[in-house]
Amino acid sequence: MPEKEKVNIFWFRRDFRLDDNCGLSEALNSGSKVLPVFIYDTGILDKLEDKSDKRVDYFHRALKGMDEELKKHKSGITTFKGKPVEAFKKLTKDFDIGTVFCNEDYEPGAIQRDEEIAEFLKKQNIELKSFKDQVIFHKNEVTKKDGKPYTVYTPYSKRWKEVLKTHKIKTYRTDFTNFLAYPAPKFPELKDIGFEKTDIKDEKPALKKSIIEDYGKYRDYPGMDHTTHLGVALRFGTISIRKCVQYALKNNETWLNELIWREFFMQILYHFPKVVNHPFKDKYENIQWRNDEKEFKIWCEGKTGYPIVDAGMRQLNEVGFMHNRVRMVVASFLTKHLLIDWRWGEAYFAGKLLDYELSSNNGNWQWAAGCGCDAAPYFRVFNPSEQTKKFDKDQEYINTWLSEEDLKTEPVVEHVSARKRALEVYGKAVKG
């Protein structure tokens, strides 16, 4: 029987790029040839009801692009479909594996998965080595003087910027000569993993100077669409966060602050995993939500009679994206005007958003509901009409997503009385 080849493995997860990829670079510099691997995790994919899920199509295209690039170097991505541990059982049978390299993931489910894989590999005398790649600072790198995590954004961002002054942002090279020359099996099509092609645009993520230079000036106006649209690229790692931060440092501090928000919510999720299902502030467990299913359906369909709310929901339903300012308005409307549990809205967004990121989605929904790690009190209630006057006064955004007929829809609630009701319910819960 021929001797098994000694290799190291790089396991792609949410870092779908060959350039400036920390874990991949470390693997390629490890002294052994590298076999790139991706696992279509059925534990995740089976939960997706829509077989035309644009997110699956997005990362599948990114993977396929990398596979085609690697084919030029007589390599390719070896893929599996199933549970990660089953894939590694097969890999350990087929290869003499020295080390498995990957990039860290800070979501509770991912941490649990990685612990399970590390435990399995340890029994085979194989080490799982993970590296920081999706953030500039992780876990305990930006903390208070006593070592405790920050729970309010502003002091966190100030400290983040201070720490950055003494931190050199590295760029990681990819040495293509160190990939294993291996006839990887034919790369699976979407239908092979049970999904269908979608109409998602095939655009390489780019840092657009015209958008980022004036980001602070125009980002709040949904009709202008003056945002980077890089959320999905950061979510799946088709662009490097290091590249984005270096660009933001040179071009726009407002955008840099948005990238810091992303890291703030990631470290909140890491240190306080209870936020996945519970409010960050315990006293908000007592809110007596109305949870009216008919009103929730009206909100989901964009038929509340508040044009900016409805336009936002139509945009989300049609293209899997919603302008950031509008996200705040629709989330506030659901939790305050309709008194529907933020977890309902968060779950709906999770099913629709192309750039869905558990930490940011959770953090922003709790922020809107007033129960998260936010210094502002619960009685901030966005007035949809005032938000429209401020940020979409000519109704450019509204008219993009709503017809004249839609604009005749009767409001599901009246703002003043809904606000009053919300303040009473929240006040009662908080005072306990």
Cα gyration radius (Å)? 23 Å
Count of discrete alpha- or pi-helical segments spanning 4 or more residues = 19
Main β-sheet, spatial strand arrangement: 3-2-1-4-5
Low-confidence stretches: none
- Counting structural domains, the number is 3
Shape descriptor: globular
How much helix, percentage-wise, in residues?
40-55%
**Mind telling me the CATH class of the largest domain?**
Mainly Alpha
CATH topology of the largest domain: DNA Cyclobutane Dipyrimidine Photolyase, subunit A, domain 3
Report the sheet with the most strands, covering strand number, pairing sense and barrel closure.
5 strands, parallel
What amount of the residues lies in strands?
Answer: 5-15%
Helix/strand order, N-terminal first: EHEHHEHEHEHHHHHHHHHHHHHH
Structural category is alpha/beta
Protein name: Deoxyribodipyrimidine photo-lyase
Family: Belongs to the DNA photolyase family.
Site (Electron transfer via tryptophanyl radical): 289, 342, 365
Cofactor: FAD; (6R)-5,10-methylene-5,6,7,8-tetrahydrofolate
Folded structure, characterized:
- The chain has 432 residues and is an alpha/beta fold.
- The chain has three domains: 1-133, HUPs (Rossmann fold), CATH 3.40.50; 134-170 and 208-271, Serine Threonine Protein Phosphatase 5, Tetratricopeptide repeat; 274-431, DNA Cyclobutane Dipyrimidine Photolyase, subunit A, domain 3, CATH 1.10.579.
- The protein is 47% helix and 8% strand.
- The protein is built from 19 helices and five strands.
- It has a five-stranded parallel beta sheet, with helices on both faces.
- β1 (6-12), α1 (22-28) and β2 (34-41) form a beta-alpha-beta unit.
- α13 crosses α14 and α14 crosses α16 (358-369).
- It holds the Pfam family DNA_photolyase.
- Belongs to the DNA photolyase family.
- GO terms for molecular function: deoxyribodipyrimidine photo-lyase activity; DNA binding; FAD binding.
